[in-house]
Design a protein that fits this description.
- The chain is of the alpha+beta class.
- The protein has one domain.
- Helices cover 28% and strands 29% of the residues.
- It has a three-stranded antiparallel β-sheet.
- A hairpin with a 4-residue loop joins strand 1 and strand 2.
- Helix 1 runs antiparallel to helix 2.
Length: 110
């Protein structure tokens, strides 16, 4: 069997200007210090013409671990762009760290 050449691809962040917003909705992530948990709100998009102008709250998720919240979101919010799920995972990992260390969490952009 011949050896296969496998490409080595260097990681590169997508510039903010090239990010495609998910047509299905968006998330707001917060830490609830009183309940000591992460709160994730999912909103469906409201459009004016072709522009997203607002959202309608559809679902709320709570938990303390990024992996369990991610698994629950994937099960309950199907059909998002793959990049949106990846963004959510990164942000939830950051929120979990902030919750554990009792430091302020600020949701980042795409």
């Amino acid at each position: 069997m011949a050896d296969k050449v496998v490409p080595l691809i260097k990681a590169k962040k997508i510039p903010q200007k090239d990010v495609i917003l998910d047509p299905n909705g968006f998330f707001v992530i917060e830490i609830d210090k009183k309940k000591n948990e992460i709160r994730v709100e999912y909103y469906s998009n409201v459009y004016k013409g072709k522009k997203i102008v607002s959202g309608i709250l559809e679902k709320v998720f709570t938990g303390i671990k990024a992996d369990s919240i991610c698994d629950t979101v994937v099960k309950n919010v199907p059909n998002l762009l793959p990049t949106h799920y990846m963004y959510l995972g990164r942000e939830l990992q950051k929120a979990e760290y902030c919750l554990e260390k009792n430091i302020k969490y600020i949701q980042g952009g795409c």
